[in-house]
Design a protein that fits this description.
6-stranded mixed sheet, about 35% helix, UDP N-Acetylglucosamine Acyltransferase, domain 1, about 15% strand
């Protein structure tokens, strides 16, 4: 038990730069208190002392503002930052090194007795106010943005944002190929930036995919023609730079007025 507590305290230092010393963490971090009380309640739940387990869970909610059903299964080094308003349902399963922020709900969509709450893989981070609903899998290393509402599985290493949540970034070979090609042409891969609106992200991703395939096809054509005329493809194209795209907006047409309240 004390080994798990030491791991919990160490995880706070790894993930919260505001933590200063172990005594402060043990005294003031409600996520630590909720975690310790949940482990006790969970053991009682498995042993059949369900009423007492629920009482400890309710006491923990009163003390910390964090509601964890004693039936939930939680891995090692689980960290709840701030914690107020966190709700974790009975059949939820949480892997190792998971981080939740305040206001997160791991909820269910059914009144059935079976599996009805989500499963979070190892290393998952769920932002403040997010709702992960139903018996879905959020795979290892995934990220859930603040206030997202997730009702479908999230692949490993992906980032999901919005309501309903959409996958805006994947840590896979296709995404890496887009980044490599964008870097090759001297262009910031805005399609990989999760701060942009989702339609823009998807549009630029498809554009980069098309440009990468066209570039590869052109290389094969140059190689074939080069067998006949070795100097055909000696001339190299200049790299595309963001600066080249600036100043392309046309000036306002004659007679067009500026927006009210703004000078020209």
């Amino acid at each position: 038990m004390f080994d798990r507590l030491r791991e919990d305290v160490a995880s706070v230092f790894d993930r919260d730069p505001a933590a200063r010393n172990s005594f402060e963490v043990l005294l003031n971090y409600p996520g630590i208190h909720a975690n310790v009380l949940h482990r006790l309640a969970h053991r009682l739940w498995l042993a059949g002392w369900k009423g007492l387990a629920r009482f400890i869970s309710s006491f923990s909610r009163f003390l910390t503002g964090i509601e964890i059903h004693p039936g939930a299964r939680i891995g090692r080094r689980f960290f709840i930052d701030h914690g107020m308003g966190v709700v974790i349902g009975e059949t939820a399963e949480i892997g190792d090194d998971v981080t939740l922020y305040h206001g997160v709900t791991l909820g269910g969509t059914s009144w059935d007795q079976g599996k009805r709450h989500p499963t979070l893989g190892n290393g998952v981070v769920v932002g403040a106010g997010a709702k992960v609903i139903g018996p879905i899998l959020v795979a290892d290393g995934a990220r859930i943005g603040s206030n997202a509402v997730v009702t479908k599985p999230v692949p490993a290493g992906a980032t999901a944002v919005g309501n309903p949540a959409r996958i805006i970034q994947r840590d896979d070979k296709a995404e890496q190929a887009r980044r490599d090609f964008a870097e090759k042409i001297g262009f910031q891969a805005y399609g990989a930036n999760p701060d942009l609106p989702d339609p823009v992200v998807e549009a630029i991703r498809h554009l980069l995919d098309h440009m990468r395939k066209a570039d590869a096809r052109m290389d094969r054509m140059c190689e074939a023609v080069g067998r006949i005329n070795p100097g055909f493809c000696d001339e190299k194209l200049e790299s595309l730079k963001v600066e080249d795209l600036e100043g392309l907006q046309e000036a306002p047409a004659s007679g067009e007025t500026t927006a009210p309240g703004k000078s020209g």
